[in-house]
From TrEMBL:
Organism the protein comes from: Pycnococcus provasolii
Binding site for (S)-malate: R195, N459, N503
InterPro entries assigned: Aminoacid_DH-like_N_sf, Malic_N_dom, Malic_N_dom_sf, Malic_NAD-bd, Malic_OxRdtase, NAD(P)-bd_dom_sf
Record-given protein name: Malic enzyme
Similarity comment: Belongs to the malic enzymes family.
Cofactor(s) the protein requires to work: Mg(2+); Mn(2+)
Cofactor remark: Divalent metal cations. Prefers magnesium or manganese.
A GO CC term assigned to this protein in UniProt: mitochondrion
Keywords noted in UniProt: Metal-binding, Oxidoreductase
UniProt GO molecular function: malate dehydrogenase (decarboxylating) (NAD+) activity; metal ion binding; NAD binding
Example GO biological process: malate metabolic process
Domain Malic enzyme NAD-binding intervals: 309-585
Source organism superkingdom: Eukaryota
Length: 601
């Protein structure tokens, strides 16, 4: 039952002295509950359902947490009406300049809106198209276009999708999780919207990344779309623009932090895993101070993983291993590499940890492996002289250098001390991999009989430490390059160097598929490393001799592909999943028999 805000027709002739006249209103009796109400164009009111109506109709959690009136919904439509029909030449010019910095074009936005409209109307056709055209559509439903979708989530919102848990739901999450209509869920992607890609705090708009991530689970790894659940935990936002936006759909308050924040996450996790005890939970785009904390809090007891830390680490490690294989070197050659790292956030340390673990696996002690990394944050090189309280991520101190005279040294000075063979970029500082720095790394790598490995991983395109072409030109085609953002291929001296995008899309679907197919107890570091090795082997198998140098020569200019083509994403996901299941079985972490799990795959 829901009540209209307008009075019934009979109220016009009601007795003004009647004490009950003010309570007379039009009432709609709904025979439906939950998602059925939201999907019915006659009964739905969109986000206008009041808190009481949401409780009665089992809608709590199925809509953004703050009810918005029909007038606000009308304003959202009229905003698009106005910008869709008036002369937009000036607006489009300004918009194109903003989009150019993110790598998203107006055509990509048009296609995103087209696909999302289809997703709402015909999910079967949507996933059929996505699966058959994954190479072309992945950048539309996932990075980089999904970043734009999250930024404009409140202005483009149309239909409910996924579940919202908020600070206002404390104490009620265990009951409201049963409002989700599907009895079985294999995978959950949850974000708190605090660090969406390289775009910062987007609050409740973060739901877009959870939806986009699970689209990749379905298209790339074959998950049943009825058995995945996108989740947004709304604890507020520190984004002043969103707090002042009349169309914003989330809680209008500053973010909750500290013990209160952890208590909310604990309750949400307990509610989800109580109803879906075998589901995999992936943490997505949590701020650095919470990402590591939550991963370490749950990883030893539940089937969880953090894509920004473990997935990024897996993708980068796979790229490193493929670069060695393409040079005719064995995996153990990773011990010879030295890394200069720009950035000390969760993703950077996740990658560093993954590479360090590979070095240890191939013979180095933990201390010896740590000596191969030089990490710089926005202050400069981190040494033991650094005061941890001045750092955004204190866990970077475990890689602090003993050479205190280089404390806070810039990248070029740090390179002179480290003599790195590889550069890793997670700084979101555009252009800091200068021509001078790139040439130095090439020089140091050649002394180790290696080609330099350059990985500017920051998103979006405008935040990349260097472009693909800049790395190729500065090293005269000798560098092996992979970027976090999409860039065009580079043509140098008549040779075309294809851009390698080190996208997590190559790893997280396969890791999730393996963990779910094996009914694993948890995701171990060994399973993540096995995923990286499986992806590297798959890449070399796909490209064969075309991706191998004839002989080891640091001056070789042969283009190297570090990742497989996206059109073969399903094959890659299965190979990665098999590697994960085999490793999990060796560690005794599978509930399903290994043979049965492999048969499922």
């Amino acid at each position: 039952t829901s009540s209209s805000s307008s009075q019934s027709r009979d109220s016009d002739s009601a007795d003004p002295l009647d004490p009950l006249a003010q309570f007379k209103c039009a009432t709609t009796i709904s025979p439906k509950r939950g998602m059925s109400v939201l999907r019915d164009p006659w009964f739905t009111k969109g986000t206008a359902f009041t808190h009481a109506e949401r409780e009665r109709l089992a809608l709590r959690g199925l809509l953004p947490p703050v009810p918005t009136s029909l007038d606000v919904q009308k304003d959202r439509i009229m905003e698009e009406w106005a910008t869709g029909f008036k002369d937009r030449r000036e607006a489009e010019s300004r918009e194109k300049r903003e989009l150019a910095r993110s790598g998203v074009t107006p055509e990509m936005i048009r296609r995103h809106r087209l696909l999302q409209d289809l997703h709402d109307r015909n999910e079967t056709l949507y996933y059929h198209l996505l699966q058959e055209n994954f190479r072309d559509m992945a950048p539309i439903v996932y990075t980089p276009t999904v970043g734009w979708a999250c930024q404009h989530f409140a202005h483009t919102y149309r239909n409910a999708r996924g579940m919202y848990f908020s600070a206002n739901d404390k104490g009620d999450m265990h009951s409201m999780v049963y409002n989700w209509p599907n009895e079985h869920v294999d995978a959950v992607v949850v974000t708190d919207g605090s660090r969406i890609l390289g775009l910062g705090d987007l609050g409740a708009g973060g739901m877009g990344i959870s939806i986009g991530k699970l689209d990749c689970y379905v298209a790339s790894a074959g998950f049943d779309p009825r058995r995945v659940l996108p989740v947004c935990l709304d604890v507020g936002t520190n984004n002043e623009y969103l707090l002042k936006d009349p169309l914003y759909l989330g809680l209008r308050q500053k973010r909750i932090t500290g013990d209160a924040y952890v208590e909310l996450v604990d309750e949400m996790m307990a509610a989800i895993l109580n109803r879906y005890p075998r589901a995999l939970v992936q943490f997505e785009d949590f701020s650095a101070n919470h990402a590591n904390l939550l991963l370490e809090r749950y990883r030893n007891h539940h089937l969880v993983f953090n894509d920004d830390i473990q997935g990024t680490g897996c993708s980068a490690l796979a790229g490193v291993l493929t670069s060695l294989a393409a040079q005719g070197l064995r995996k153990c050659a990773i011990k010879r590499m030295r890394f200069l790292v720009a950035g000390a956030g969760g993703s950077a340390l996740g990658v560093v940890d993954s590479i360090r673990q590979a070095m240890v696996r191939h013979g180095l002690s933990d201390e010896e492996a740590r000596r191969n990394f030089w990490i710089c944050d926005h202050h400069g090189l981190i040494t033991t002289a650094r005061d941890p309280s001045t750092m955004h991520n204190e866990t970077a101190m475990k890689y602090a250098r003993p050479e205190t005279k280089y404390e806070k040294a810039d990248l070029v000075t740090a390179a002179e001390a480290a003599r790195p063979t590889a550069l890793l970029g997670f700084s979101t500082a555009h252009g800091i991999f200068t021509d001078r720095l790139l040439k130095r790394v090439q020089h140091y790598a050649s002394h180790e009989q290696l080609r330099p490995l350059i990985l500017p991983m920051s998103n979006p395109t405008s935040n990349a430490e260097c472009t693909h072409a800049e790395a190729v030109f500065a090293t005269n085609g000798r560098a092996i390059v992979a970027t976090g953002s999409p860039f065009p291929d580079a043509d140098h001296d008549g040779i075309v160097y294809p851009n390698n995008q080190a996208n997590n899309i190559y790893t997280f679907p396969g890791i999730a598929l393996g963990a779910v197919a094996g009914q694993c107890e948890r995701v171990s570091d060994g399973m993540v490393m096995a995923a990286a090795e499986a992806l590297s082997k798959h890449t070399m198998d796909v490209y064969g001799d075309a991706n191998r140098m004839i002989c080891l020569n640091p001056n070789d200019q042969k283009p190297i592909r570090l990742f497989p083509p996206l059109e073969g994403a399903r094959n890659a996901a299965v190979d990665v999943a098999v590697g994960v299941v085999v490793q999990a079985a060796e560690e005794g972490l599978v509930r399903r028999h290994r043979t049965g799990a492999l048969e499922v795959l």
